[in-house]
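Just wondering, can you check both lines?
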Amino acid sequence: MRSGNGNSQPGPRIDAIAAQVLARFRGVIRANPNVSHVGPAGTLPDFCFEFVALIGRLGQGGLNPVPEGMTDPRRDEYRNAEKFLESLRTMEGAAFSETDSAPASPTVRPAYGGSPILNS
C-alpha cells in the first residue's frame, strides 16, 4: 500500500496477518501441557520471531511456483517453520520462562570469528 507521497506503509492486510500468526503461535504454546504461563497478550518468546516472520511472509505473498525438479528454498523455510510451530506443543516449559539470562561477567571478552587474536 502506498500513501499519496509515494512512501510504502503497512496496510490492514499486514496487520491482520500478523495478528493471525501471533494468535496461532500463542494458541500452540497455550496447548503445551508443560507451559504454565503464556506471557502478556501480544507477546511471544524471542526464539519464535524468525518462524513467525517466515509464516507471516507466506501469508502476505504466498509461494511462487518453481520449475519441476527445482528446490524452492522458501518452501523449505516454510516447512521448517511449520515443524518448529508443532514442536512448541511438546517443548519443555523452561524454554518459555520469563527470567532473563545472567549478564556476562566483566572478565568475558568476545572473540570475533572465534579467535582471541582478532580482539587485539
About this structure: The helical segments are 12-30, 49-61, 73-87. The two ends are 49 Å apart (CA to CA). Residues 16 and 59 are 10 Å apart (CA to CA). Confidence is low (pLDDT under 50) at residues 1-5, 110-116.
